[in-house]
Amino acid sequence: MIETTTCNVVKLDTISDRALHEAGHGVAAFRYGIGVRRVSLDECEIEPPGDFLEQGRHHGSLAVAYAVIALAGQAAAPKTVMSTSDQLLLAHACFLGSFADCPAEMGRAFLILAEHFVLDHREQIEMLAKVLEERRSLSGVEVLEIIGRGQ
């Protein structure tokens, strides 16, 4: 597992760490072009990468997308831990990108990307987390509507 430093995302008092964590995953998936099936306070379920690869994107870009999605939750809410599914997604990312660099170096680079992503998209993450906190679960379409408002 990769240890993270804090991104200092300002947490509003009404938003839980769980909501920020899952919102981080959801915003990262949306921004990297990976479809979101559903996001709840327990998990963010993403689409398989078929469309991503069919759009002509390289496996390396999928590796970066998966890594940022996996790490964005903890970067958005540093007091949370990576779930088993977060760790598995990160392992897939390291495997996809392992043709060029060693996994430890890639992990550090991915973590920096995720932290910068969270800082750059803090408002959208907080907006999604606030709605997620209220509704407890959102469909992918609802996530797109909420995040789309903050573009």
The gist of it:
The chain has 151 residues and is mainly α. 62% of the residues lie in helices and 7% in strands. Strands 2-1-3 form a three-stranded antiparallel beta sheet.
Query: Low-confidence stretches at least 5 residues in length (pLDDT < 50)?
Result: 1-12
The largest sheet, given as strand count, sense and whether it forms a barrel, is:
3 strands, antiparallel
How many beta-strand elements?
3
Helices and strands, in order, run as HEEHHHHHEH
Derived from helix and strand composition plus strand pairing, the structural class reads mainly alpha
List the helices and strands and how they pair.
Elements: H1 17-31, E1 36-40, E2 44-46, H2 50-54, H3 59-76, H4 84-96, H5 103-120, H6 122-135, E3 137-139, H7 140-149
Antiparallel strand pairs: 1-2, 1-3
Keywords:
151 residues; mainly alpha; three-stranded antiparallel β-sheet; disordered N terminus
Describe this entry's structure for a reader.
By secondary structure, the chain is mostly helical. 62% of the residues lie in helices and 7% in strands. It has helices spanning 17-31, 50-54, 59-76, 84-96, 103-120, 122-135, 140-149, and strands spanning 36-40, 44-46, 137-139. The chain has a three-stranded antiparallel β-sheet. The chain is globular and about 40 Å long. The termini are far apart. Residues 1-12 have low confidence and may be disordered.
